[in-house]
Design goal:
By secondary structure, the chain is mainly alpha-helical. Helix content is 44%, strand content 0%. It has six helices and no strands.
Length: 136
């Protein structure tokens, strides 16, 4: 619970037991990158489209997303290559992989976590298209 709230709200310098500086709240951390979405040289990738069926998404969206990423990078991939990339996109062997399930946050957030998230990043979720309002 403490780790989750710290990830949402940030940590004041005097409370950071790991000796680091001030950790910004989630809205401040993510908000720094929202402007990148408007740049033509940026290819924004959504987890929900990339994760595919093993992560709760669907194969057609995953296929299209991988094709879009490849095209952005100037690559022409065969359908077989796209499918192979999709299979490798979901890997518990990756050092950054935790669970990879769309919507799994709902299994961990209590009402207090939702309220904290809405306070610091609710508008950001709306801007990014993950929510239509703060009624979630």
């Amino acid at each position: 619970d403490e780790w989750l709230m710290a990830a949402i709200n940030g940590v004041r310098k005097e409370d950071n037991v790991h000796g680091g500086g001030l950790s910004k709240n989630l809205g401040e951390r993510l908000g720094r990158y929202v402007g990148w979405l408007a740049y033509p040289g940026v290819c924004a990738v959504r987890f929900e489209k990339l994760v595919g069926p093993r992560g709760g998404g669907n194969e057609a969206e995953q296929f299209a997303e991988i094709k879009r990423i490849a095209a952005f990078c100037g690559l022409r991939l065969s359908d077989e290559q796209v499918l192979a990339a999709g299979e490798r996109a979901f890997s518990p062997r990756s050092v950054t992989f935790r669970k990879g399930q769309i919507g799994d946050w709902q299994n961990h957030f209590e009402e207090k976590h939702k309220q904290a998230f809405k306070t610091v990043a609710g508008q950001l979720l709306i801007e990014l298209g993950y929510a239509e309002s703060e009624d979630w």
